[in-house]
Each structure stands twice: as C-alpha cells, then as structure tokens.
Amino acid sequence: MGLGGSKKQNEAPRHASVDDEDRAMLDLKTQRDQLLAHRRRLDARAERDGEVARSLVQLGRKPQAVLALRKRRQHQQLAADCQGHLGRLEELIESVEMARVQHGAVEALAVGVDMLRRIQRDIGGIDHVHRLLGEQEEAFEAQQEIAAALAGVGQGSADDTEALGAELSRLEELFAASAASALEVTGPAASGVAVSSSAASSDLPAAAPEAPAAHDAAAHDAAAHDAAAASAAAPAVANREETPRVPVAA
C-alpha cells in the first residue's frame, strides 16, 4: 500500500503541471484570437474613415475630411501595432508547442534509456554473455559425445571385430577345401560322362544349347545308361567265349 500511495503522490504533481501547461497554452491562444479580432476591427474602422474622407471631399468639407483622414491613419497605426503583437504571440505559441514536443521526445528518450539499462542489467553484462556462450559450446560438445556413444552401442570393440573377421576367413577356407575335394572325387566319372556325351552328340544333329542344370542332368542319365548296358553285355560275351564250337559234318 505504501508503494501504491507513493506512486499516486508522484503522479499527482505531474498531472497538475500538465494541467497548468495546458491552461497557459489556452490563455495564449485566447489572447491571440482577441488580438486578431481587434486588428480586424481596426482595419474595418480605417476603411470606413477613408470612405468618410472621400465623401467629405466631394461635399467640399475639407476640415472634416482632414479629421477623417487623421482618424484613419490612427486606426491603421493601431492595426499595425496589433499585427506586431499578434506576430510575436504566434511565434511564442509555436515556440511553446515545439518545446512541448521536444520535452515529450526527451522524456521518451529517458524512458527508452532507462528501459535499455534495465534490460542490460537483466542480461547480466558482457561477462555473463561470454559465460553463456562457453556453456553452450560445452553442452554442444557433450551432446556430440553422447550421440557418438549411443551410435557405438552394439557394434563391439576392435578386438571383437578382428576375431569375427578371422573366424569368417577360416570358414571360407574350409568351404573352399570341401569344394576342391568334392571336385577331385567326381573328376573321373565326370570325364567318362563327358566322353560318352561327346561320342553320342557327334551322331546327332546340332541342337540348341540347354541350360547348365538340364545339361548336367542329361549327362548324368546318359552315363548311368552306358554303365548299365556295359554291365549287361559283359556276361554274354563271357558265355560266348566259354562255349565250345561243335564241328559241322560235311
């Protein structure tokens, strides 16, 4: 409540000064309007005195005409003085208005400077900014380290990688040795099949090339057929050789 009361007390003189300034400006403008109206009246009287002087000259009343001209000159002088006062008053009013504008600009500038200083105090100064930038860089580096650590999970160490590579090489060597031994075992049979197939194919017309799998199956079947025919023909040949020839009578 104390703070609110002090604020109201500070605002009260300010409002009073503003009211006084407005009242003074209103008085100046009122005086200007009065001077302007008085000058217009003096101009009108001077014009009327001139008309009266012309009328008196036409009537031949020269003394009265001279008096009318003297009154016109007096009214013109008063109008000129009034115009001088009016000009000075206009200049004063414009100066006051410009001063009020400048005063408002200075107050706004003061408020802006105060706000800027308050914001700078809230920021904490240049040292605080440098410290924040350093902390930001450290936090960024720590985040990169965390990301690298998470990316390396499940990949194993370098020793595990080398051991796995050696085991893979050993398995490849075993597979290559098994394939080589299988080729050595099936070598003679494959060569016999190839000879029989070439002999049979020499008597047949040329045919379109077959797929590798179908060609291997046909060669295997032909080799099995030739082996079976050879085993069946062997006993017959032996029986012919063992049977004695019977002489035929003449």
TrEMBL record:
Q: Disordered: where is this region?
A: 1-25, 204-250
Mind telling me which residue stretches traverse the membrane in this protein?
none
- Name its cellular compartments: Endosome membrane
Where does this protein have compositionally biased stretches of type Basic and acidic residues? 8-25
Task: Name a single GO cellular component.
Answer: ESCRT III complex
Q: Which residues form the signal peptide?
A: none
Cite the InterPro entries for this sequence. Answer: Snf7_fam
Record-level GO BP terms = late endosome to vacuole transport via multivesicular body sorting pathway; protein transport; vesicle budding from membrane
Q: Which residue ranges have biased composition labelled Low complexity? A: 204-216, 225-238
**Which keywords does UniProt give here?**
Endosome, Membrane, Protein transport, Transport
Family matches, as Pfam families: Snf7
Question: What is the superkingdom listed in this entry's lineage?
Answer: Eukaryota
Q: Does the keyword Transmembrane apply?
A: no
Answer yes or no on keyword Membrane. Answer: yes
UniProt lists the family membership as follows: Belongs to the SNF7 family.
By what name is this protein known?
Charged multivesicular body protein 6
Name the species this protein comes from: Polarella glacialis
Q: What is the lineage of its organism?
A: Eukaryota, Sar, Alveolata, Dinophyceae, Suessiales
